[in-house]
From TrEMBL, chain A:
<feature type="transmembrane region" description="Helical">
    <location>
        <begin position="76"/>
        <end position="97"/>
    </location>
</feature>
<dbReference type="GO" id="GO:0055085">
    <property type="term" value="P:transmembrane transport"/>
</dbReference>
<dbReference type="GO" id="GO:0005886">
    <property type="term" value="C:plasma membrane"/>
</dbReference>
<feature type="transmembrane region" description="Helical">
    <location>
        <begin position="257"/>
        <end position="280"/>
    </location>
</feature>
<keyword id="KW-0813">Transport</keyword>
<keyword id="KW-1003">Cell membrane</keyword>
<dbReference type="InterPro" id="IPR000515">
    <property type="entry name" value="MetI-like"/>
</dbReference>
<feature type="transmembrane region" description="Helical">
    <location>
        <begin position="150"/>
        <end position="174"/>
    </location>
</feature>
<keyword id="KW-0812">Transmembrane</keyword>
From TrEMBL, chain B:
<feature type="signal peptide">
    <location>
        <begin position="1"/>
        <end position="19"/>
    </location>
</feature>
<dbReference type="GO" id="GO:0055052">
    <property type="term" value="C:ATP-binding cassette (ABC) transporter complex, substrate-binding subunit-containing"/>
</dbReference>
<keyword id="KW-0813">Transport</keyword>
<protein>
    <submittedName>
        <fullName>Extracellular solute-binding protein</fullName>
    </submittedName>
</protein>
<dbReference type="Pfam" id="PF01547">
    <property type="entry name" value="SBP_bac_1"/>
</dbReference>
<dbReference type="InterPro" id="IPR006061">
    <property type="entry name" value="SBP_1_CS"/>
</dbReference>
<dbReference type="InterPro" id="IPR006059">
    <property type="entry name" value="SBP"/>
</dbReference>
<keyword id="KW-0732">Signal</keyword>
<dbReference type="GO" id="GO:0042956">
    <property type="term" value="P:maltodextrin transmembrane transport"/>
</dbReference>
């Protein structure tokens, strides 16, 4: 009995350590979310003190808006391209600098450097690169100006910046793969490619899960890259769902409608992330 | 809302009477006297918000504020320049937070939503308005109340390089087909006709508006009708024709049109690399910054095939308004007073090279480009479009996005985009 009491006390002490984090989460995430949810059923303009309850009108208008398709398409495009590109390049860089030499360590720093840069600087750098270097010296017209290529231009920028981050996570996983496994595989006659598929890949699935989930979250919520590089333009060619939400909430003075769009975006991000993470976790357990 | 406003008014009156030593705060002629009599008067900092992109205009503003501080040493200024693209958002946020700047850059016509919300101070009847050009003043007046103080009169049209035109034996085109002939002739000589800097998306809008605003003179209530739903863009053949002409002009490439920014396109024109540039009057100072001595001129964009139809669309250009939240109305009015004084107006037009909204403005000593614009005004070959374009907020944003989409994508289907534009506008009318 006394033992059980002691155990409960210990558990409570452990739980109490969660309080600061939970408090932050509630104040910064849960409360605004609940409040936002209630705004989404009103015609609030974002400035006035009064607002009227209008039921599901915002949601029904949202699903009738043909302008929603472009941001939806752009967001999914950005997600898929950066997910594949950032992970692929990040993994390749990790494999390339996996050794312990001084040169490898220097390269790691270089590869990680873009991630540390401010996003505004990155956007400036790339717009400069696109219009002042690529066109005058190589005759390649700026990807960011053409409505048909602008999402590619933004994706390349994002991959360049974020690949270093993925590399670090892959690197950590790669260093944990015991060297004996490779030796054993070598003895068995496995080539470089075979060893990657049969030894390396299964061993780094946890890193893969982390990176893919992370990139999915970033990709679906993307706001900053198109906002800083093009402001969603030309026209609305690089508008993403998050920019759509922003446009309605602030410049267009339709905060109620913007909130409805934000809630839909949240549901979408949550659903896709849950499915992706679920699929990957199953893979982890299997091995 | 109403309650808040009256509270605000009471606060404003209370502070005004405190600061002005019992003066009512509106009588400007007595203010300087009271200012000098109490040298120990409390120092006041006036916040000014603007999105002037041109260095010359920023210097012009600085000159006016310095002039004011010199006359009234207790008035200091805190000038904040905001990027045009985020200006309205930042301003709205500031106003919503009760932290509005005292003086706000902008033309009342574009801020009717804020005026309706009671956020802009009514300046009707202030003495400095007597110094202003009546038509510019008329544009600052909404429902009989004057909300803005204009600095200059602006226009959009075509800058041209007189030397290139002379070498090629070209005349100023008076009709649209003549303009196209000129562009073709230049291109045949491997001279780029127009400098395009569409990386900044608003630059393409200037090209479109230089054409369309001249057109609007024939249907001044076009945008009012758009807003009450009785005018569809698709039902206006003139609108479609204007869009088609716009696309035609944009089809003359000057290189990487969509990767070149505004500043570089002005450099291209000022450096003699292109023969023409379609832009607004705000570019004069930028052109002169790059080439002070260049032999340049300006003409109205010929949109019609009838030469006499091709008048210049003009409007009040740069203007300032006062925030209703200001606690320093007296000082704000003093700023406007020096802005409209003969020296203030001269400082502005000297820096910005624009046509002053001050009615005593004379062309002597002005830039040849400015003189070309002024000639249209003096010979009454102008149409004042300022009051005709009445879209604000989201409608304005939709219309501007349309201009970018239809212009920057040469393969875009004009009819489809115009019908999309109508759909988007009608969604907002519901």
């Amino acid at each position: 009995m006394a033992l059980a009491k002691h155990r409960i006390k210990r558990e409570l002490i452990k739980l109490s350590f969660l309080i600061p984090a939970v408090l932050f989460f509630v104040v910064i995430i849960v409360l605004p979310f609940v409040k936002g949810l209630s705004y989404s059923f009103t015609d609030w303009d974002g400035i006035s003190e009064s607002r009227n309850f209008i039921g599901f009108k915002n949601y029904s208008l949202l699903f009738q808006d043909h302008n929603l398709l472009k941001p939806l398409k752009n967001t999914l495009f950005f997600w898929v391209v950066t997910l594949i590109g950032t992970n692929g390049i990040g993994l390749m860089m990790a494999l390339a600098v996996n050794g312990s030499g001084r040169f490898n360590r220097a390269l790691r720093t270089v590869f990680f450097l873009p991630f540390v840069l401010s996003l505004v600087l990155v956007a400036f750098l790339w717009t400069y690169l696109y219009s002042e270097i690529l066109y005058p010296y190589f005759g390649v017209k700026s990807l960011l100006g053409n409505p048909h290529t602008v999402m590619w231009g933004i994706s390349i920028m994002a991959i360049w910046k974020d690949a270093g981050y993925c590399m670090v996570i892959y690197l950590a996983a790669l260093q944990l793969v015991p060297a004996e496994y490779y030796e054993a595989a070598k003895v068995e006659g496995a080539g470089l490619f075979r060893r990657f598929i049969s030894v390396t890949l299964p061993m780094i699935v946890p890193a893969l899960t982390a990176n893919i989930t992370l990139l999915t979250g970033w990709g679906l919520k993307v706001f900053d890259y198109p906002m800083t590089a093009t402001g969603g333009g030309p026209g609305n060619a690089s508008e993403t769902l998050a920019i759509y939400v922003y446009n309605y909430t602030f410049p267009y003075n339709q905060a109620g409608y913007g909130q409805a769009a934000a809630i839909m975006l949240l549901v979408l991000v949550f659903a896709i992330t849950a499915v992706v993470a679920g699929l990957l976790r199953r893979k982890e357990v299997e091995m | 809302m109403k309650k808040n406003l009256s509270l605000l008014a009471i606060t404003a009156v209370a502070t005004a009477s405190l600061a002005g030593c019992g003066s009512t705060g509106n009588d400007l002629s007595s203010s300087p006297a009271s200012a000098s009599s109490s040298a120990s008067e409390k120092e006041v900092t006036i916040n000014i918000f603007h999105h002037l992109g041109e260095e010359a205009k920023r210097n012009g503003l600085k000159a006016i504020t310095d002039m004011t501080t010199e006359k009234y040493p207790n008035i200091k200024f805190n000038i904040q320049a905001i990027d045009y693209n985020s200006y309205n958002n930042i301003l709205k946020t500031k106003i919503a937070a009760g932290d509005a700047p005292d003086i706000v850059f902008g033309n009342p016509i574009a801020y009717r939503d804020m005026i309706k919300a009671g956020q802009i101070l009514d300046l009707t009847g202030e003495s400095f308005f007597q110094e202003l050009n009546p038509s510019a003043l008329d544009e600052m007046t909404i429902d009989g109340k004057t909300y803005g103080v204009p600095l200059d009169i602006g226009a959009m049209g075509i800058y041209y390089n007189k030397d290139i035109f002379q070498e090629q034996g070209l005349q100023i085109p008076t009709t649209f087909s003549e303009l196209i002939k000129v562009a073709d002739a230049l291109q045949a000589q491997k001279i780029i006709p127009f400098a395009h800097g569409f990386k900044d998306s608003w630059t393409a809008q200037a090209d479109f508006q230089a054409d369309w605003y001249g057109n609007v003179s024939k249907f001044p209530d076009f945008f009012d009708k758009v807003q009450d739903g009785s005018q569809k863009f698709a039902d206006s053949p003139e609108f479609k024709a204007s869009v088609e002409r716009y696309k035609k002009r944009l089809s003359y490439s000057s290189g990487d049109d969509l990767g070149t920014d505004y500043a570089k396109s002005v450099q291209m024109f000022a450096g003699g690399k292109t023969a023409m540039l379609i832009e607004g009057d705000w570019s004069i100072s930028e052109i002169r910054k790059n080439n002070p001595q260049g032999n340049f001129g300006f003409f109205a964009l010929p949109f019609s095939e009838t030469a006499s139809d091709n008048i210049l669309g003009i409007s009040a250009g740069d203007a300032f308004m006062a925030s209703a939240q200001t606690k320093h109305k007296d000082e704000v009015l003093k700023f406007f007073d020096s802005m409209n004084s003969a020296e203030g107006a001269k400082a502005w037009s000297d820096h910005s090279k624009t046509i002053s909204a001050n009615k005593n403005f004379t062309i002597s000593g002005a830039d040849p480009i400015t003189s070309d614009i002024f000639e249209y005004i003096q010979s009454s070959r102008t149409y004042s479009f300022g009051k005709a374009y009445t879209l604000t907020g989201q409608m304005d944003a939709i219309f501007r996005k349309f201009q970018e989409t239809v212009g920057l994508d040469q393969s875009a289907n004009v009819d489809k985009l115009i019908s999309h534009l109508d759909t988007d506008i009608s969604r907002l009318l519901k």
